[in-house]
Amino acid sequence: MVININGATLNGIHGYPVSVEIHISRGLPSFNIVGIGGVAVKESKDRVRAAILNSGFEFPLGRITVNLAPADIKKEGTLLDLPIAIGILCASKQIYTDNLDKYLFIGELSLLGKLRDVKGALPIVIEGIQNNIKKYIVPKDNKDECSLVKEAKIYPCDSLNDAINTINDDNIKPYKIGKIKNDNSQYRIDFSEVVGQHSVKRGVEVAAAGNHNLVLYGPPGTGKSMIAYRIPTILPDITYEESLECTKIYSVYGDLEEGLIYKRPFRTPHHTATKIALIGGGAKLMPGEISLAHNGVLFLDEMLEFKKDVLEALRQPLENRSVTISKFSGSTKYPSNFMLVGAFNTCPCSKIQCTCSEYEKNRYLKKLSGPLLDRIDLFLPVDYVEHNHIISTEKTKKSRDIKKSIDKARKIQYERLKKYNITTNSEMDMPLVKRYCTLENGAEKIIKKIYNKYSLSTRAYTKILKVSRTIADLDERDRIYESDLIEALQYRKFIEEII
């Protein structure tokens, strides 16, 4: 008799259903797992044997064969410990149940039979729902992320015995998570703490409204990092769909501190980060910082201190909003729709009284190549604040006030672009730019003059129009006026004046 148990494995951030088939026959005692299992899967034999014995059951003597179907897909990780153990107990007739096919089992077993949390539980539940499986036996530490899927019935367990009792008791109710805390009141910092810098704040507001890439540059100590760290406080609240996407990535990465992502990610990798750390990859093709910042902000402080090849690796993800990582062992695709925020000093000495020559300055700034600069929408100079601004008692805009105008602009963009499965102006392609970036006569003349004078690339041209469209949305205008276009052009002065 062959017992069939529903299990799963991972491929990137996508779950993959696995049918765990167990057959026990007469013969010399042996325990074989077939179906291209990785090292952790092969080692599950020892964990499962010890867990069964220490849970009060007998480990069957005979020829045990476990087949992981489909047999041509490689299975990695410890996700299959629990379904293998349940299958062996059913095949040896130590437990009896007639509803195993209604459940999907995931979990790593300790030698004592306890269930440990696993990476990638959420993507597996999402895939299971698409395969019409409604009930899930999961480790208790994975319950919050799994319960994000509204259609799923989640039964958290802390041991092998607990899992067996759950499938045999129809009175146990599935776990339900509370409401996602997706408001920005949790932040202890606020934009009102930034003294002066009114033009910079305006530029940041425009960037946040359209999800545009942004660079802050200027002398040290002027507040570049301070401003960047406050950008999450003005971004729109994360939606249920966005929360689900982010939690899938962090679930695979193994970094879910509270079980789910309830605010937009803000990632700040150190400038010594490698290309793999930033983009993703490695032996297990794990997501990098650009994917961990999905639906949020990737902040590169001291941007010019990053290695040039690391910065250049950002070019394709910034354009495609996803990254495909390939190795001999396989390939996987991760989403990376983030808002890039960079900050750097304009010379290597970083002194108030600069001692660098023009050659040294130019050499330092050349780490930002032309193609990478083309992918950045706004360049904001951050200068020293005058003393009268520091001592001023004038009230400035709070984060919640800036956020209101950004929410309004984002709503306009969503209504305009939802039929194209995008939500912000920065995601528009050329046909959409032509359709929705309608210019007034005066604005049309200005952009034509600028295009010819500076020999703009098509990408730079469309980015100017996208930023202009966002500025018009902040003012709730259907068409782009001269003032909108001139403001957008001001945000690109860095390219002409400094490089």
Computed Rg:
27 Å
* Share of helix, binned: 25-40%
Q: What structural class do helix, strand and pairing data support?
A: alpha/beta
CATH topology of the largest domain: Rossmann fold
Straight-line distance between termini: 74 Å
Biggest beta sheet summary:
5 strands, parallel
Percent of sequence in beta strands: 15-25%
- Contiguous low-pLDDT stretches (5 residues minimum) are none
Q: Give the CA-based shape.
A: elongated
Average pLDDT taken over every residue: 90
In CATH, the homologous superfamily of the largest domain goes by the name P-loop containing nucleotide triphosphate hydrolases
How is the quaternary structure best described? Answer: single chain
Order the strands across the largest sheet as they lie in space. 11-14-17-10-18
**DSSP strand count:** 18
What is the tally of helical segments?
21
Number of domains: 2
Main CATH class of the largest domain: Alpha Beta
| CATH arch. level architecture of the largest domain | 3-Layer(aba) Sandwich
3D structure, described in words:
Pfam families: ChlI, Mg_chelatase, Mg_chelatase_C. It comes from Clostridium mobile. This is YifB family Mg chelatase-like AAA ATPase. The chain is α/β, with parallel strands linked by helices. It folds into two domains: 167 residues, Ribosomal Protein S5, domain 2 (2-Layer Sandwich), CATH 3.30.230.10; 314 residues, Rossmann fold (3-Layer(aba) Sandwich), CATH 3.40.50.300. The protein is built from 21 helices and 18 strands. The strands form six sheets. The protein has a five-stranded parallel beta sheet. Helix 1 crosses helix 2 and helix 6 runs parallel beside helix 16. The longest helix has 19 residues. The protein is elongated and about 85 Å long.
